Amino acid sequence: MATKDLQITVATRLRQAIRQVSIFSSLSSDGLDEIAAIAKVETFRKGRFLFRKDDLADGLYIILRGLIKITQFSHLRKAKTLAILGAGTFFGEMAIINEERRSASAIVLTDAELLKIEKQDFKHLLADNFDITYAILQQVCSRLRAADREIEDHTFKNIEGRLASKLLQLADQFKSNDGNVSDEFIALSLTHQELADLVGTNRETVSHKLGVFRKEGSVKIGNDRKLRILDREKLLSWTRQ
User: Fold this and answer.
1) Is there a contact between 58 and 108 (Cβ–Cβ < 8 Å)?
2) pLDDT, mean of residues 41-69
3) Which stretches of 28-158 are assigned E, i.e. beta strand?
4) Dihedral of the CA atoms 122, 4, 14, 47 (nearest 10)?
5) What angle do CA 4, 9, 12 make, to 5 degrees?
6) By C-alpha distance, which of 155, 154, 167, 162 is closest to 205?
7) How many Å is the Cα radius of gyration of the chain?
8) Strand order in 59-65's β-sheet?
9) Element (H, E) at 28
10) pTM exceeding 0.90
């Protein structure tokens, strides 16, 4: 393939990938070209820190492929995972908008391909495009609502309720039906420690509570660590206790 044809193919693929991102989905072809001109594609291996809490903000990241974990660490190095983000989502905007340092760490959970828009380019984009600014504002509000629900769970629910609520949330976020609408896989593999970091407890507690859920028939865990929800109503009952 000629170099020019290859460049056209890469540019077309990049525009298609950008259109899959919710905040850019309504852009015209010229708008997509504008984003493609200022964004660069970067690949990262599993386990890489993209940035750490208190780092200076250098840009906005958009996930094309893979999973990113947003995490807080205590002074004793205990972890609390705030979110797991997949393809089509963005992160890193808050520290740019409010001119503060990073409020959490971002870790590559699986090998990933990201778009990065440098800080100044992102600020110019916000200033020049109302639709993108409004879409980002909507996403930020959604995340604030999710944070409110997380606070509510930790305040009013026991461990079983918090774990059940998190499993249902992950199922909605990463759902994969396996030909049977009554069975749904959480289409990502998480260790018991990673689940514990999401729920805010320890690995032993998560292992025990998952055993309770398995025994009652609400979930099943495969050898690949992917979890199948067999009975949503049974899990929901735990969130109401």
Assistant:
1) no
2) 94
3) 39-44, 49-51, 59-65, 68-73, 79-85, 90-91, 105-108, 112-118
4) -90
5) 125
6) 162
7) 20
8) 39-44, 112-118, 59-65, 90-91
9) none
10) no
Are β-strands 79-85 and 49-51 bridged in parallel, bridged antiparallel, or unpaired? Answer: unpaired
Average pLDDT over residues 93-98: 90
Which residue stretches of 102-222 are H helix?
Answer: 119-128, 130-156, 159-173, 192-199, 203-216
pLDDT tens, position by position, 82-93: 999 999 899 999
Rounded to an integer, what distance in angstroms lies between the CA atom of residue 11 and that of residue 199? 41
Nearest to 142 by CA among 1, 9, 23: 23
d(CA 190, CA 188): 6
Which uninterrupted H or E stretch holds 10? helix 3-19
Q: Are 56 and 100 in contact (CB under 8 A)?
A: no
Q: Name the residue among 233, 225, 166 with its Cα closest to residue 200.
A: 166
Q: How far apart are CA 64 and CA 61, in angstroms?
A: 10
